[in-house]
Amino acid sequence: MNIQFCGAAKMVTGSNILLETKKYNILVDCGLFQGGRKIEAMNYEAFPYNPAEIDYLILTHAHIDHSGRIPKLVKEGFRGRILSTKATYDLCSIMLLDSAKIQEADVEWENRKRQRAGREPIEPLYTMEEAEFSLKFFEDYLYEQMIIVNEDIRLRFKDAGHVLGSAIVELWIKEDGETLKVVFSGDLGMPNRPIINDPQYIDDADYLIIESTYGDSIHEGLGESTGKLIDIIDRTVLRGGTVIIPSFAVGRTQELIYELNGYYEYNEDIEEHMKIPIYVDSPMAVEATEAFQLNSSSFDEDAKKLILKGDNPFTFPNLRYVKEQEESMALNKYKFPKVIISSSGMATGGRIRHHLKHNLWDERNSLVFVGYQAEGTLGRIILNGTKRVKILGEEILVKSEIYYLEGLSGHADQIMLLDWIRKIKSKPQKIFIVHGEEESARKLSEEIEREFNIETIIPDIYDRYVIEKQAIELSQGAKVEPAYLKRDIKAELENVYNQLESLDARRDRLMDPKLLEEEYDMLKNLLIDLQQSLMDLNIMVGR
Ligand SMILES: [Zn+2]
């Protein structure tokens, strides 16, 4: 079969990989290109394949650089199945609509200009209606479920620990009687991140496609970064300034809130001057936070414990969510110390631009970056130390203090990426390195080849490779049993037995007549699912 890299090759955005077997065309991710004008123009180019001929789209996570061209794909003829985790679907239903809203607004503005100049109007990449329609093709699944896509393709999502719902994709594809296992790391997170679980590891792969955003660097610890953020707030507030944090509305913002919740709710001696309002100014962040709360079953143990204790980690007394535009504008009218967390995370658009315009020129203020700033973005330009920037048509001096807290990043650093490969028991025969600027990808490639002696490839955009099973010497008539079948299913069954046992211990509580009506409804649905699964299992084993 063939693999073609149609985005995020030697760059971090526009993730889009095509797998072509003799029978099927499968895409993994379909994200927006983000960055400067030249990169973003690529969103308007035709796909290098016919969307109508794609059978499946597997989505690693909801971030727009992985999902943002889905409505365009559907608009141009895709009618296949989109497979993702449930949380990814929930977040996409917010993010794709938001993306469409931005596309429509941008084009409206551009078209007014064009009309005045007597030029032809342009069309948005996709409309709200088209984004809404594309959601109909989603099917959502749980982590660890073995998804039988069809008789030749199986798929499993593992937790990538990058953002809620983010997944590593294990894909088994049968062709000509042989099964090839291709694994996509998706965006990998760091262990011990707030709210979400640590990235899971995989046992084996024939081919691995791995991200390399931070393939050349090593993060400081998360605790260190949170401590630094508190210090920055402290110093800025004491000189009467405001702290501006550009933050991705989905993921990073909720993690920041969670960390600040930890500081404000579990700290005996907070000094009076630190009790300033913290504004989360992004309608999408507000909606995403609601989606997070609906998916608390995917949280890590610490976050679950807080919730069980009765603490909602997304609220604390001085936290304010800002939804309305007027309220957002008003934030810059009054010059009292505060923290504003707003999107977009790389300052490429959204309300953050207004806050930068109104605050960047004042040396009392601080600007804190908490995530990756891609080449060509306003965030990267400021981070590189420019003294003047043009924001919303106005020239602004950059005089506030600029910080970059890398430990809060949602991406694995070089140590983690190498460790993740180290834990693969049966190593891949080849590794493709994507989702990183050339320098990062190259450094990671050197380290991989040095430590594991595995051939690596850093594809260029649109490069295509043949991938096939390495010839394995087999004695006549020997049958290779896919290793995952026995080992994984045994482990899963054991897991089920253990859960049943723990359920037994809770029998009294389940039989408690004081359960609420809604709890009964939920139990009933769960029981129906369970009965169905047990029946399927019975039928299958009975055959
Ligand atoms: Zn991501």
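qc> The chain has a mean pLDDT of 91.
qc> done
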